[in-house]
Write the structure tokens for this entry.
Amino acid sequence: MADTRYTKDHEYIRVADGIGVVGITDYAQQQLGDIVFVELPEVGRSFGQGDEAAVVESVKAASEIYAPVGGEVVEVNAAIEGEPAVVNEDPAGRGWFLKLRIADAAELGGLMDEGAYREYVATLG
Amino acid sequence: MTSASPENPNPAHPLPGASGEAPLLRTPLYLRHQALGARMVPFAGYAMPVQYPEGIIAEHLHVRAAAGLFDVSHMGQAWLTGPGHEATARALEALVPADILGLAPGQQRYALLLNAQGGVRDDLMVARPADPMADGRLFLVVNAACKEQDWLHIAGALPEGVSLEVEDRALLALQGPQAAAVMAGLAPDVVELRFMDVTETRIAGIDIRVSRSGYTGEDGFEISVANDDAGALWDLLLTAAQVKPAGLGARDSLRLEAGLCLYGHDLNQEISPVEAALTWSIGKRRRADKDFPGAIRVTEEIARGPLRKRVGLLPEGRAPVREGAQIFDDAGELVGEVTSGGFGPSVGAPVAMGYVVSEFARPGARVHVALRGRKVPAAVTPMPFTPHRYRR
């Protein structure tokens, strides 16, 4: 069963069998507004926890997407490069960014579960 | 995810006033923006709607296709008043290189407040009322972020008998190809106006000052109205089926596609009108008489050409290039900098403007814009990116 964890920077990672699907939360896509460009890393690259892994550009600004945990990129969602608006439409589903082979599952422990993230977003107003 | 933009430097605290700075000012339409679900951001000391729920791209495209209604009440409005047009016009001409003396009744003109070195302090609109009873009066509209300094600067430079009265009024902009059809049903006389004409009239009993102008490249109107009447006018204009509210985000992407400068980004105290490709705003008589601030530099640049010039840039690919990005030539030499850049919803691709050394200020010149450690090829291109559709 997949377990989804969240960062304070509004990335999610949905973990199953040692692989984490990384994307941005619905709150993040709302804050960004219309997304017009996504830059994804190459498959095979490795990131440490908190490293810049991708870039998302809205009409107004560029934002960095950080690796929620360390790991190696095993797949990227090329569909959102061609159609970035999918990230606005379905951030938790078709709008995912990349899949990581998680290096150290212990790093997941420092992330928020869904309830904690919901409370965190509520404090942002 | 972290992001920053000029409107929202602290995305973790997007709500107005939440960052502990001075409380933000509100326009008379603040509650209406909230009721419409706008996202409010700090801009020039005001809480302003950056977008409504439909989003920047939808608002942008709606302005190009039909009509959008903008609240731009944060801008500065003032009357310059003297004993007659000549006295008032000459007082303003001491500060701007535009031909103000030659402004006919009922006309508006774009002007630049220059410093002594010929740099741009602000850009503004100057209107001479159509009403002969208003002889000697000029209506000024300046940028929100500059207005306090502008008023001090102008008031401090006026001769005896000419005075500045700052007005606290709302300003709405109705922009788009359907704007005239919307106004036709409300104030038929404004439909006769041509681009940059002004008049005073009434809509549903509300006194308004109207200019046929805007900041989108589309036909449209800018409407100055008393604060107490602003809500009623806003509501009335929004009842038209063609009209949707549009925020500062769409205003920025529309003006960028239209090739129009944003003060503090594409214009500043170091940049001259000639470098900014705004030489057209300098009156012929003014060039000959050289009687405006910075005239030595400006006339020299007109004669010999400026060292750098504002140009349009079309980057290859889909990645937007942003303000501050450096521009290089094929050999890797630094030749300029992007001053405005983003995604052009009507163009369907990234668009930008910036300053390049004059050698590259020609359509088709190839340059390379730095982006996240690499360089994106870009073509220097004429502006606007989308054709102006003014009613000439």
Observations:
- Residues 307-381 of chain B form a domain with the Elongation Factor Tu (Ef-tu); domain 3 fold (CATH 2.40.30.110).
- Confidence is low (pLDDT under 50) at residues 4-18 of chain B.
- The longest helix of chain B spans residues 227-238.
- Chain B is about 20% helix and 30% strand.
